[in-house]
Amino acid sequence: MGETGRTSRRDAALRRCSWATGPDEAMRQYHDTEWGTPNHDSRSLFELLSLELMQSGLSWQTVLHKRPAFIKAFHNFDVHTVMDMDSHIDLLLLDAGIIRNRRKIQAIITNANAVAHLEDTGTSFATYVWQFVDGKPITNHFPDHSQSPCRTPLSDKMSKRMKEDGFSFVGPVVAYSFMEAAGLVNDHETACFRHQEL
């Protein structure tokens, strides 16, 4: 049997979080390689924050499938390019590839400016984000993902601080989803192979 056949069989045998067990390969790939993995790259963290706020009120699957279009529309989420995109909002609202919500698009631009301001004061976005967990991921032990919270006192604190520091559309629920995505919190189900790996 070829390498691809062995990989597919091994892949099929893996125990995953319940939300990643469906037929959507993009969801499985995101679960297996990215979600919950500690992320210390400032550009990548800005991208995740942007996608998480775009998800508000929608499914993550919708956002994930539009991710390539978001990356193109927001110039690979380069903070210094995005911070100057106010004049592009009307054009972005015509882009059927992304989620066309003026408030959310404006929030991404506002947040790019907040990140740039942090950098100007000598703090990377990664350093800023990881301070909320003292640099160490929090590992939870939920048998089922439905048991994980939508928000916590820590995400309340993070949300409040981020708003004070100029960030927009970062309520406690968005903040907690971002913490899960960026690996500040390991909310993989306890039986999931990624829970043990992380």
UniProtKB/TrEMBL annotation:
PANTHER family: DNA-3-METHYLADENINE GLYCOSYLASE 1, DNA-3-METHYLADENINE GLYCOSYLASE I. It comes from the Bacteria. This is DNA-3-methyladenine glycosylase I. Zn(2+) binds at residues 17, 31, 188, 192. Keywords: Ligase, Metal-binding, Zinc. InterPro entries: Adenine_glyco, DNA-3mA_glycosylase, DNA_glycosylase. One of its GO terms (molecular function) is GMP synthase (glutamine-hydrolyzing) activity. Its EC number is 6.3.5.2. Transmembrane segments: none annotated.
